[in-house]
Design goal:
The protein is of the alpha/beta class. About 35% of the residues lie in helices and about 20% in strands. The strands form five sheets. The protein has a six-stranded parallel sheet. A five-stranded mixed barrel has the order 15-16-17-19-18. A three-stranded parallel sheet has the order 7-10-11, sandwiched between helices.
Length: about 450
């Protein structure tokens, strides 16, 4: 048998990109590729890009520039760009970096084997279409390896919300939900390969409305309840959600579905109604707070995570103080916060920006508050016994690391055979980025 070619994939950004990279590796596995963690050992390098962060495209071009020497040493090396920057930039990537052999958007990666063959024949390959065929269905029969205890599963893609700062509707397209039977089939396959926890993914996952076996659209809550019936699947999570799609049945599921973990990522972006309106978020600070109250009434121990944008065009000091007030009111166990940066083609990009030094100063103040709340959430776990799904060896000999139901990293002394199992762990202390505990078997 011929020795497999080697594929190096570097993944940027969200969990959906992680999922997509796994599918790309499976697709190219059919063309004789095995993955490697070293770019200099690869026959193909694939950058799976994200367009959310600041200067995303420029960072991709910078990364590509680092491969010039490697390409000169290995003329047969093929280099590709995938994901949302690929979708946004298209042919411009090949024009600016001639060393790139193929460019593929996030809706077309099931076509990678044919594109790779074209590149091997010496032709440039570009595909940033939004094809009608189901990429997930086309890839379902690809070779699949044994999996770790946790996995992502995309159930919904795209977004119809058109927030003023966001490129997702332009790079991922309109909202599309996968049919229930295909999701269940993939979930059962993951469990058969060793997965015990599945995180359902979507740009706007709680807007899920996939066709069920009964021919009717199913909500995310109904999908979760059906997934919970799969033997061997012990935990279910979902991300990322929009407040306007948090329906009653999904709120109820947090209270009565044991396999749905007590963790929710629900971005609010700002605490100022004026800014929220400018962002086209279509909710208010008050409606968000009332929604959180309803969810916590269903699941009192819920740990909440959120997203915040600081320095959106037109944000005043009073607007920013409204955000701090909302954070104080809600209380977050985790959160992600960023300075606003313009995305070409979005409505907000045409507005005058808040000065950079002001954005930085506000971000520091917000992060100080969020970090204080996160530390308090960690400290509140000390003395409790939490169920932990062990995922991998820790840094120290004899140590394993896993996740609690609240998504906190937990490490404890445990035998290697505990990987993939859920066990009670007594939490002894809170560390900066994890919890330390001991088995309570």
């Amino acid at each position: 048998m011929a020795e497999p070619k080697k594929l190096f994939i570097k993944t940027y950004g969200c969990q959906m990109n992680v999922y997509d990279s796994e599918r790309m590796a499976e697709a190219l596995g059919a063309s004789g590729y095995a993955t490697t963690d070293r770019a200099d050992d690869a026959d193909m390098i694939l950058l799976n890009t994200c367009h959310i962060r600041e200067k995303a495209a420029e960072k991709v071009y910078s990364e590509l520039g680092r491969f010039k020497g490697l390409k000169a040493e290995k003329p047969d090396l093929k280099i590709g760009v995938a994901g949302c920057v690929a979708q946004a930039e298209g042919e411009e990537i090949m024009r600016r970096q001639p060393l790139v052999d193929l460019v593929v958007g996030p809706q077309s990666y099931h076509r990678l084997p044919a594109m790779e063959a074209k590149a091997r024949a010496g032709e440039k390959a570009l595909d940033t279409d939004f094809p009608e065929e189901d990429k997930f269905e086309i890839l379902k029969d690809r070779p699949k390896a044994r999996r770790g205890p946790t996995a992502f599963l995309t159930v919904q893609e795209g977004c119809d919300k058109f927030c003023a700062f966001c490129v997702v509707p332009y790079t991922r397209g309109a909202e599309v939900s996968r049919p229930v039977d295909r999701i269940l089939r993939e979930a059962r396959d993951l469990v058969a390969r060793g997965v015990r926890e599945i995180t359902l993914l979507g740009q706007n996952v709680n807007a899920y409305h996939g066709e069920g076996p009964d021919g009717r659209d199913w909500s995310l809550a109904r999908l979760i309840r059906t997934l919970a019936e799969i033997d061997g699947l012990e935990r279910i999570r979902f991300t990322t959600s929009h407040p306007n799609d948090m329906e009653d049945d999904l709120i109820a599921a947090h209270g009565d579905c044991d396999k749905l973990m007590p963790y929710l990522h629900l971005p609010v972006q700002s605490g100022s109604d004026r800014v929220l309106k400018a962002m086209n978020r279509k909710h208010t600070a008050e409606s968000y707070i009332r929604l959180i109250e309803r969810i916590r009434a269903a699941r009192p121990d819920l740990l909440l995570s959120g997203d915040f944008i600081v320095g959106f065009p037109g944000e005043t000091e009073a607007d920013f103080r409204d955000t701090l007030a909302l954070v104080e009111t809600v209380g977050y166990g985790q959160a992600f916060s960023f300075k606003y940066s313009a995305r070409p083609g979005t409505p907000a990009a045409e507005q005058e920006e808040v000065p950079e030094d002001r954005k930085s100063e506000r971000l520091q103040r917000l992060q100080a508050l969020l970090n204080e709340q996160a530390r308090a959430a960690q400290e509140s776990m000390v003395g409790r016994t939490l169920d932990v799904l062990f995922e991998k060896p820790g840094r120290l000999e004899g140590q394993l690391v896993g996740k609690s139901g609240y998504l906190h990293a937990v490490h404890a002394q445990a035998a290697p055979e505990m990987i993939g199992r859920i066990a009670p762990v007594r939490i002894l202390r809170a560390e900066p980025h994890s919890l330390a505990g001991e088995l309570a078997l």
